[in-house]
Amino acid sequence: MLKRMGVALLASASIVAATFAAQAQGPARSLTVTPAETLETQGLTVMVDQNQFSPIFFDEKNAGIQIVLHGERIATDGAVRLNRTPEQWDPVPAFLGRTRGTEANQIVVRSAYKDVDLTYKVKVTAEGDGFRIAVDLDQPLPASLAGKAGFNLDFLPTSYFGKTYLMDAAPGLFPRHATGPMAKDGSGDPMPLAAGGKSITLAPEDPLTRVTITSDAGALELYDARNRAQNGWFVVRSPIAVGAKDNAVVWHVRPNVVKNWVRPPVVSFNQAGYTPGRSKVALIETDPHGPAPVEAELVKLAADGTRQPVLRAAVTSRGRWMRYNYAAFDFSSVREPGVYAIAYGGQVTNPFRIAADAYDRIWQTSLDTFIAEQMDHVGIREQYRVWSAPSHLDDARQAPPNHVHFDGYKMGPTLDSPFKPGEHIPGLNVGGFQDAGDYDIQTPQNAAVVRDLVWGRELYGLDWDETSVDEAARAVEIRKPDGKPDAVQQIRHGVLQLLAQYKVFGHAIVGIIDPAQRQYAHLGDAGSQTDNLTYDAALGTTERKGGSSGAQDDRWAFTTDLPANNLAVAGALAAASRALADSDPAMAAEALDAAKVLWARQQKGKIKAGDGRDDSGSPWSADGANVGATVELLITSKGEKLYADRLRGLMPVIAKSFAWVGASAIRAIPYMDARYRAALLPMVRAAKAKRDAEIGKNPFGVPISEGNWAGSHQVVEFGSTMYLMHKAFPEIIGTDYTLNAIDYVLGRHPASNLSLVSTVGTASKLIGYGHNRADYGFIPGGLVPGVLIVKPDFPELKTDWPFLWFENEYTVATTSAYILAANAAIEATKDDR
């Protein structure tokens, strides 16, 4: 052990020595403006408002001026802010425009806080071996902003934990855990870690993360914003002086750039391994500034730890995508079971298996642990660990009209409810799944989970028992089989909530969510988010009586009656009626009756779009949901004419939205006539051509999202949908699409090679955005969104910072979609074992 540690330490010392040697060769090249309007030099990118603050979530830590140094985004949100350490929903500036400046290599951004009459521009100019930031106000600060407005730049805590800083000559340490100091005036505001200097150097000891900032005008301040919220960053700030206008803030920013720095190659592959007969292609991501060896080698690990060369072969170029070059290493010819690794460019990857059973249980923890952990209104235990006490037993109160919630829920002028605003709604404190890391029940997502699990049972025989569910006792115990299939119990748990909504309102609702930001930001045990006592306005705030209390912590129900939600729930309930027919025939009949009523109401006239969420996407369109619901009722009724005729009438919708509804449309084939399959044939051909053109733009063979939320969900839905097309039209669609999808989410993606499913594969995402994110923990089996494209061209997946939800947030419907894709991949490889 000591010998191995010594080797590792020597290697680290060599790397550091090499880094300093590179530095000694001279300064890096100056920054220049690119056509994408970033400032670039080898080893450094400065993004200038290519990514804007969110109109819904405000501060996502991906806006304003951002710094990518030595391959890592270390700083973000360079902008005028109205708080020293802003939280997520604190005011953010509106982006007005970006232009080239009058000076060489200068970018100018105009922004505004319209509500407080503050408009300004930020000029970012290449300067020497760094850049200058200058803030010009259109008018001096209004009196109301004196002492509040300043220029902030946030630095990623995990890049600086345990490192030092210098404020002028005064030394300090970046703490691993936030420990104050805090203002003693009751405000809850952090005090600065350091203040009053004209210059600050972050990490003087580390050439890869060292940054020096010098201020011309006001003094600099350094804050630890984690003192206010766990997702805060280290903030460097200069207050804007009263009366200042032009050059209200001027910084000279000097990131240390190691001359000729080259990002090490990333060798990405499926961390769960490969079945012997399937294709096996690793992808190699390399820095265009560095060498790219033309060969890679597969090595087999022997029992004594030695590496035995198995295959050495040339890599094949896959071209440039975003900012990196890619090459493929094909080792499909290797079929012998064993433990392998890939050697490339002087490094050897972590091991992976080639084995017939490589994928047999890649979905297991997603079903029996992650989805169990997301169950609402029950307590969840796993051996000694308590994931949650019974939660939200005080659900729910009626949300008010004309209200837009800070998490995107919307309530219109009518409540579509027999309850008054603020009134307790009985019957909703059963079943359902907490959508993500924020404890809400999103009805369409819950419907998707139910339907996915039904499909898993019907298509792939998803039959597994590792968890006990006792609904009457509100008790769930993971790793304690109870003789009942976990998928059936999870389907029933979801149906409990969906049926509760129908019985209370006669329709589906948007969802149930916390009313206040402070409560919404709760981290940890879901059972402690509310007091589980029904709110009674007659009681004092801290008063309790019987099963009631005066605490207004009960979640709100957003009750708008929307066709998209009704149809999504109708489809889920119709599907569930099949899955529950044997174990709970009474609930199965009740679910089917509700499905028929909800479906029938939406079959006349034009269907209103929207599902009551500001951030919903097209998968939840009402027309698409109508196709899904019609197909589920068709299958349940074994081809009843009413539903078959309606599905024929929906063929224009299927043709228009085949990317979203193709899987449902394919599932209907056995229950329709030959003309129906013939009508789908050109759609399948067109879908293949469109998908081939789309995925041909990247080296990974899957659709990659370039929006503000990473795209693992669409990748797994692509994988499972293409497998259904393969089964129905094998002459057109092969299995490569499905295998590319499972390869992507299990490690063969940009930026890193970690499996995006926590604990699945030899190296996986073990710091995620779940209920336990404040502990830098993970939830086994959860699928994270994955690689985000930080505009214009930077693929990012933070491995050590859990609070970027667009890369790291588990969601329950994404994970149920993964269960389908994983089982599709298993089926696709059965002939290759």
Characterize this entry briefly:
The protein is of the alpha+beta class and 833 residues long. The strands form 9 sheets. The chain has a 9-stranded antiparallel beta sheet.
Task: Please outline the helices and strands.
Layout: H1 2-24, E1 32-33, E2 39-41, E3 44-48, E4 65-69, E5 72-81, E6 94-100, E7 106-113, E8 118-127, E9 130-137, E10 150-155, H2 157-160, E11 164-167, E12 170-173, E13 194-197, E14 199-202, E15 211-215, E16 220-224, E17 234-239, E18 249-255, E19 266-268, E20 281-286, E21 295-301, E22 307-314, E23 316-321, E24 324-330, E25 338-344, E26 347-348, E27 352-354, H3 364-373, E28 379-382, E29 385-388, E30 397-398, E31 403-404, E32 410-411, E33 441-442, H4 443-460, E34 467-470, E35 475-478, H5 486-505, E36 511-513, H6 517-520, E37 534-535, E38 544-545, E39 548-549, E40 556-558, H7 563-579, H8 585-600, H9 622-636, H10 641-649, H11 651-656, H12 658-667, H13 674-695, H14 712-728, H15 736-745, E41 788-790, E42 794-796, H16 805-808, H17 812-828
Parallel strand pairs: 28-35, 30-40, 37-39
Antiparallel strand pairs: 1-2, 2-3, 3-4, 4-5, 5-10, 6-7, 7-8, 8-9, 9-18, 10-17, 11-12, 11-14, 13-16, 14-15, 15-18, 16-17, 19-20, 20-24, 21-22, 21-25, 23-24, 25-26, 25-27, 28-29, 31-32, 33-36, 34-35, 36-40, 38-39, 41-42
Helix pairs in contact: 3-17, 4-5, 4-7, 4-17, 5-7, 5-8, 7-8, 7-9, 8-9, 9-10, 9-12, 12-13, 12-14, 14-15, 14-17, 15-17
Keyword list:
about 850 residues; alpha+beta; 9-stranded antiparallel sheet; 17 helices; 42 strands; about 25% strand
